[in-house]
Amino acid sequence: MAIASHPITAKAHTNIALVKYWGKLDQQLIIPQNDSLSITLDEFYSETSVQFLPSLTNDEVTFDQQRLADQASLKIRRFLDGVRQLAGVSERAKVVTHNHVPTSAGLASSASGFAALAGAASRAAGLKLSRRELSRLARRGSGSATRSIYGGFVAWQQGHDDATSFAYPIDENPDWDIAIVALVLAKQQKKISSRQGMRLAVETSPFYPAWITTSKTDFATVKRSISDRNFDLLGHTSEQNAMRMHALTLSSDPSFTYFNADSLQAMDMVRDLRLQGLHCYFTMDAGPNVKIICRGVDAPRIATAFQKRFGPDNVLVTRPGAGITITE
Fold first, then answer.
1. Domain named Diphosphomevalonate decarboxylase-like N-terminal: which ranges (predicted)?
2. Domains, in order of start, for the chain
């Protein structure tokens, strides 16, 4: 197919992992060390428009209304090279993206960003990829992006090569009463990237083999809890899995952490709310921001408690979100 004659826009939502991916078997292909499972979020998303133009001599990337310099856009341009190779085109691209996610603060902005880029760039280059093919393509930009192609509960199959490592839906439209209260506790870029943190954990943490073993068990447990709609089993297992992941950062050499003082206080508040009879559990990805998994009926009360401590602008209630949409 020929390249599109007009910009193609894709919208993809970010996700939070309930069973984490932490560590790569293959750095180049981004093949993970274990299967993972996530929930796509409605409120956090990226919108990206792509057009391949014969008149361009270099890729032009505009991110949140700012034109990126060559070094800042290197990862995006390399991803576009992969799309060009796949589509058999040579034209440079004009990329315009807007993130409705705090970038690099632990809310997986790269997941929604590269999922949206995969959808828009592939279609603009004349490709008509299936969602599984889009998932494989998005993975080459960011591992967690492979899951943002789908909505609701999503699993990422570890696989062993480019063809077998992809995400698949578990329940794209969960109709049970589940919500997520997201706390934005820091908006600045984190000091240690996920890529750096994973490498350190794999290479130096003595607990890493145990992490792989327990993650496999957690994956099976959370998958079963979704099928059975067992909210407390899902929440408890997700919370434990998150703490085990962060134990890897503390046991690496040199040790590091994504927690800050507010993260620790938020986790204690969740535990206190549980003692008060509320069904809520926390999880954290590679950043200080805490996400609280709760029943939708309890979300307003939980959000109010955290708004009083962290301010209304830093607390957002969201629900399971949709998969990628591409507009031609």
1. 12-167
2. 8-172 (3.30.230.10), 179-318 (3.30.70.890)
